[in-house]
Amino acid sequence: MSFLFPALAATAAGTDRVALRFGERSLTYGQLRGAAGALALRIGGAGRVALWATPTMETAVGVVAGLLAGVPVVPLNPKTGERELAHIVADSAPTVVLAGPGDELPAALRALERIDITASGSAGELPPEAAAGFPALIVYTSGTTGPPKGAVLPRRAVATTLDALEDAWQWSRDDILVHALPLFHVHGLILGILGPLRRGGEVRHLGRFTPQGVARELNSGGTMLFGVPTMYHRLAEALDRDAELTKALAGARLLVSGSAALPLPDHERIAAATGRRVVERYGMTETLMNTSVRVDGEARAGTVGVPLPGVSLRLVEEDGTEIAARDGETIGEIQVRGDNLFTEYLNRPDATAAAFDGDWFRTGDMAVREPDGYVRIVGRKATDLIKSGGYKIGAGEIENVLLDHPAVREAAVTGEPDADLGERVVAWIVAADPQTPPSAEELADHVAAQLAPHKRPRAVRFLDALPRNDMGKIMKRSLHG
């Protein structure tokens, strides 16, 4: 029986159950076993395989095949630029590239042996299960501080994180997951495709996100929705004019947001319209999932819940001293350890060593802990922790207050050097009505009244849109005066 996918064992019950659905196309567990098993037998023995990760059935079949074969899979973002893609290919050195039959591959991949993925086939005995510590995937980080690094994720980490989410979310084979996430990263590929398959449930991928698609699939049996904040913002905006969407979200068992913080105004709009609270969780490429709001706990907006089973989490000062306080105020860097962690950055022993404090992984994320253990992230250490006038200020709480102002559509907060304060708070604003934007004084007073005077923006800059990556995260390094 497969360690990662028990439902794909030859003796598994329910092989006629739907496993994957992409639009009008679907595969049962029996068909997925045949297609992925046949491909697994073809690629067995390859050192590593690259996967051209389009949002298609073929990508799902390809990643399952790689895992069945015990061959590390390197998912590739089809939107990656030529230079970055060349670096990833040279660094990971795959011997084969898997792609859909109609996919046109860029020059950086044309020297590799190509195998087209088909969603059909048959397989007898599957290859023997690889060891739990063997690499399952090599997922490349975003490369905001240099060339992307390949995080080597062992099979153990994939199983551990998905089983921890089974516990936290009461995730079962009866669940039908709906999402439209990219399939080259942890959220969409590991949680969104491998998660349902490990449970023996069904995933319905929309291909392209639309509120109408979400409403259609949830109203026709979907029980769970995964999304990023940009998606939930669009859902929140559509609720007032779409009764079917309101019904769909209200009827879902679980709404999950991740990859970035969901702004409080969107939390509240969705809750007010549907009676359902969006659950947030926290993870990284290197750690998979660390914390989540539990379905049997309080879905508290603005927090990412409590550590998942098997995950140890602590907050530390800049000098590495552990912070014991759970007062909701003292900010520290999150460090984690557990079987959910990656094993190394490929070919980068220096970076791997620097990422750990003993066996604790330094996440670079700053947070506070509430008295009941809930974690509230205030931002990245490099971009979201602002030291101003002797205070440590988290950008996230200021952003949420700014977003609560009726004249603000989008907001980001950064720090910039200040001769007097050390750093000053800068707000980057997309106005709800560009013709009549709010004044800087109005926004500063709004923040000071809600939080504290030292947290008010000292400068306000207006933009037509905030720069975001494929996962909807704001790219703050692109914001500068």
Automatic annotation (TrEMBL):
Database matches in Gene3D superfamilies: 3.30.300.30, N-terminal domain of ligase-like
Positions of the AMP-dependent synthetase/ligase domain: 14-346
Pfam family, one: AMP-binding_C
InterPro entries xref list: AMP-bd_C, AMP-bd_C_sf, AMP-binding_CS, AMP-dep_synth/lig_dom, ANL_N_sf
AMP-binding enzyme C-terminal domain span: 397-473
PANTHER family, alphabetized: ACYL-COA SYNTHETASE (PTHR43201), ACYL-COA SYNTHETASE FAMILY MEMBER 3 (PTHR43201:SF8)
Family: Belongs to the ATP-dependent AMP-binding enzyme family.
Protein name: Acyl-CoA synthetase
Lineage: Bacteria, Bacillati, Actinomycetota, Actinomycetes, Kitasatosporales
